[in-house]
Specification:
With 239 residues, the chain is α/β, with parallel strands linked by helices. It has one domain: Rossmann fold, CATH 3.40.50. Helix content is 41%, strand content 18%. The chain is built from 7 helices and 6 strands, in the order H-E-H-E-E-H-H-E-H-H-E-H-E. The chain has a 6-stranded mixed sheet, sandwiched between helices. The radius of gyration is 21 Å and the shape is globular. 29% of the residues are buried.
Length: 239
């Protein structure tokens, strides 16, 4: 009965807007894909609040979010969890119901993150193809905002390429384009214009930093060459 009363109360406002030629707009939507590297213990796996806080759902309740959670591992086929919060029109929606939708959405994300965190680490790392595959999939999205988050040290060890070898790291520092072209020969990147890519990692030591930063710089150069905007950081925050 309360919901019916609220809808009836909204009708005059909606009719007035339509009579004036003003059509209420549905808020913008965002697509976000998050790739977690299982080749090391997932120590910097965020919780749902950390992932969602940059979208400020308390203030902007009616925006849409389409989130894909997946992993990079020692195989090319990895599970994907898709969780949706559909965009709604503020004038024709019920705030109480929307808050319940948001709470359910956050709970589903946290459950998926907990499941990923429990997965054991892998011995090899197919990082590039996991990132490229998800970047190409996200590139086809028609959403207003597209975000690709990669929680990884980016160190490849796929049987053909190993960034753990000192010689390979020297090659990345001296000739990053040569190494990135080798990676792309296995799975080319599509145009990534309009995509925000976040390479998220917090080095544990001076040596760890010395391995991560050249690889991150190579990834930045490679992804930006295809039109993406790339951020190297410890935590995700919307620009």
């Amino acid at each position: 009965m309360k919901r019916t009363t609220q809808l009836i109360a909204l009708l005059p406002a909606v009719c007035l807007l339509q009579a004036c030629g003003i059509v209420p707009q549905t808020p913008a939507s965002s697509d976000m894909t998050v790739v977690f590297d299982r080749t090391d213990s997932i120590r910097n796996c965020p919780d749902a609040q950390t992932l969602l806080s940059p979208f400020d759902l308390e203030r902007d309740r009616f925006q849409g979010l389409h989130i894909v959670l997946t992993t990079a591992s020692d195989v090319d086929v990895n599970g994907r969890t898709v969780i949706d919060l559909k965009p709604q029109n503020e004038l024709t929606s019920n705030i109480v119901d929307r808050e319940k939708d948001i709470s359910r959405f956050a709970t589903q994300i946290q459950q998926a993150l907990d499941s990923i965190r429990r997965e054991p680490p892998c011995g090899h790392s197919i990082v590039y193809r996991a990132v490229a595959r998800e970047a190409n999939a996200l590139a086809s999205s028609s959403s207003t905002n597209k975000y690709l988050l990669v929680y990884s040290d980016l160190l490849e060890a796929n049987g053909e390429v190993s960034f753990y070898r000192a010689g390979q790291l020297r090659e990345i520092r001296r000739h990053p384009d040569t190494v990135s072209q080798l990676l792309e020969s296995g799975l080319p990147l599509q145009p990534l214009a309009g995509m925000q890519v976040f390479l998220l990692y917090e080095p544990r030591s001076f040596a760890d930093n010395g391995a991560f930063m050249p690889v991150a710089a190579m990834y930045r150069r490679m992804l930006e060459r295809h039109g993406a905007t790339v951020h190297v950081a410890a935590q995700f925050s919307r620009p």
